[in-house]
Every structure is written in structure tokens, then in C-alpha cells.
Write a structure and sequence with these properties.
The complex is a heterodimer. Chain A has six helices and five strands; from the N terminus they run βαβαβααβαβα. Chain A is α/β, with parallel strands linked by helices. In chain A, 45% of the residues lie in helices and 14% in strands. Chain B is an alpha/beta fold. Chain B has six helices and five strands; from the N terminus they run βαβαβααβαβα. Chain B has a five-stranded parallel sheet, sandwiched between helices. In chain B, strand 4, helix 5 and strand 5 form a beta-alpha-beta unit. In chain B, helix 1 crosses helix 6 and helix 2 packs parallel to helix 3. Chain B is globular and about 35 Å long. Classes of the chains: A alpha/beta, B alpha/beta. At the A-B interface, helix 5, strand 5 and helix 6 of A face helix 5, strand 5 and helix 6 of B.
Amino acid sequence: MNKRGPIIIIEDDLEDQEILEEVFLALSCRNEIIFFNDGQKALDYLVATDVEPFIIFSDINMPRLDGMALRNQVHENEDLRIKSIPYLFFTTSAEQKHVIDAYSKSIQGFFVKPSAFNELKDTIHCIMEYWHRCVSPNYIK
Amino acid sequence: MNKAGPFIIIEDDLEDQEILQIIFDELKYDNEVIFFDDGEKALRYLSESTIEPFIIFSDINMPKLSGIELRRKVHENEDLRLKSIPYLFFTTSAEQAHVIEAYSKSIQGFFIKPFEFSELKDTIECIVKYWQKCVSPKYIK
């Protein structure tokens, strides 16, 4: 978890991507925001890059590789696991089985996207603050 | 994760327990706060009780059963895992090895207790807000 690293958002709805972009802008967020439309593209990037992201916001229902499968692949990859990137589900709806499955695998957050802009902004702010307050392997001796 | 359930705090320093109690009193949550001064007592309570806690705040260096061990045992217990209780490390210091180990096992938060009362209070408030915003298996169909 590199607190200055980019925020990775995996979201196949382009309208939702735009709204999120606006939210991060409104929060004067200094981290770069990188969007992916599907899980496979995100996985290819995460595996290939030297960049250490801050947080991964991931949708669940997506074409090609869904959020649950993507998270498993990220977690099973030794190099990625060492990067200690908090992985959060950030979805439009939540099926009971996904919620139970995610928590039983110790998901680091599971949010249903609020539809009101201000509430969405408040949620993102809360998430950013939470992980900023956490210790990161990079910042201690 | 039962948002109305008790907060479990595992902390062997009685002075720190008192400070945390004062903070939770000031924050006026409806949730009960239950303290344990070692990991073994906490594990016994968690495995025997039918109560579903909201969040577990756990120290790392403790007599009998360390926080790292306790978390592993909680995670390996099927019944406890299904209760989906966010497990956070909340310690006075953090060794690099513990931090990496914890994140590689998808810890749901790793905080160093701030010395300042007001900052400690802000941190607790931020943590509670974060998990209140998350979906819980209980509250959706």
C-alpha cells in the first residue's frame, strides 16, 4: 500500500467512471486515478506494472473476469500480495452470497455505491481517510 | 458483521483500556464495548458466544496468545468466519514483518494508536464510520 500511488478503479459503466472522476476531483485527491473497464485488463496491468497502487476499487459484475475472480487472482499472486493493496468491492448491488463469500475471505471493504453524489463523495472520503490512517509497510522501518 | 453488535477490544494495557472506554463513551455509540486483556480469553468468548460482534480491535503483543495467532484462529474457525467480523490490528508499535504478514493475509485495518486523545478519538470515529458504511451480510436480501 503506497499512499501516494494511483487509485485503481475497475468499473465497466462509463457513466459511473465519469461520476467517480468528478468525486475525486471534488475531493482534491492527489493520487492518480486509473480506470479499467474489465477485470482482465486490470489484472494484466497489475501483474505487469512496477507501480504500487494505493487502493483497488472493484466492481463485481463485469465482462471477462468478474470482481470475485479478479480478487482471487490478485490474492494468489505473491508479488501483488506483497504490495499490500487494500482491495474493496464497490458495486451497484450486493448479492447475499457475494457478501458472505467476500467477508469470509477477509475483504477489506464492501460498499454499495450510493446514488446521490454527496453521499458517494462522503463514502469515498471516508475510505481514503481510513486507509491513510492505516500503517503501510513502506512507511515504517 | 452485526452493526448493532458489541465492539471487541483485546488490549492488555489497562490504562489504554480506560482511555478507549472514555473515547467510546464520548462517541455515544449504541454498541456495547467488551474488553479482554489477553488473546486466549477473547478467543474463548468469540467461539462460545452466540453474540455477533461488530468489529474486533486487537493488540498484537499480548500474553498467552498474540494478536497474529488470534486472528489466524478466528479466521480458521468456520462459524466465526461466517460472522464476517472485521478484524483490525490496533497496536502501540508495528514491526515491518508483522505489517507485511498482516496485509498479505488481507487484514482489514492496521492502526498504530495515536498518543493524542483527540487523534485517537478521530481514528476510532473514522474506523466505525467506515464499517457502518460497508454492507453487512445481515442487512441485504
